[in-house]
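Lay summary. Proteins are chains of building blocks that fold into shapes, and those shapes determine what they do. In this project we predict the shape from the chain. Here is one chain we studied, written as its sequence of building blocks.
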Amino acid sequence: MSKRNLIASAVIGAFALGGSQVVSAEPLNDLHKEEAKIHSAAAQSQKKINSIYEQTQELLAEYRAVVDETENLKVYNDHLARLVADQEAGIASLQRQIDGIEGVKRGVVPLMYRMIDSLEQFIELDVPINYDERMDRVAHLRDLMGRSNVTTSEQFRQVLEAYQIENEYGSRIRAYQGELEHNGQTISADFFNLGRTALLALSLDQKNAWVWNNDSRSWEQLGDEYLSSVVKAVRMARKLVPTDMIKLPIKAAE
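And here is the predicted shape, written in a compact code that computers can read:
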């Protein structure tokens, strides 16, 4: 072949080789594009998977919280059930007591009336220590028994309290002012009582003294030999002078 022909063949061959490279590059680009799509789709899928996983974890946490709350509620409900059972038992016990109150009242109310009557009779027969105050207390108890707004238990409490006060009169030493009746006269005096052993009276001018005779239910005037002792007894009861030995008219026990 001539040199011209060789050059032409070389040029044609070069074109042919260049054309084959262009043709073979197109499927490779398509392959890269498809691979990119696959990667993009895979990334999207991974995002969906991650989102689903996060939602699953949240749902799992909520489930566990619900399970824990359910267990707590079960324990609390069991606790409430025991409390309710105990309260029902207490209510049943109270109801039984309430049912028995009427029976108790039927026995207690007559007893209180008898106690008040006995208390009044005792005061009438007793040494008249604070006589008016004690009789006012009896009157108050009788009035209390007629009040519908006062419970039976409160009535009984006050009756017992009155008995307790009466009991204290037998052990207390005290002085107080009042009035006595003697020879048709009302005399203001200082009274002194040594429990129920002796009840004495001293005129306010301290010139006369009397002793109560419970047998005759009357006041008897004392001689002057007792006057200073009665004055001292009143002063000792009021804690104006120290306690000391004194001479008083005491009736011997029979």
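What the prediction tells us: The helical segments are 3-125, 131-145, 152-169, 227-237.
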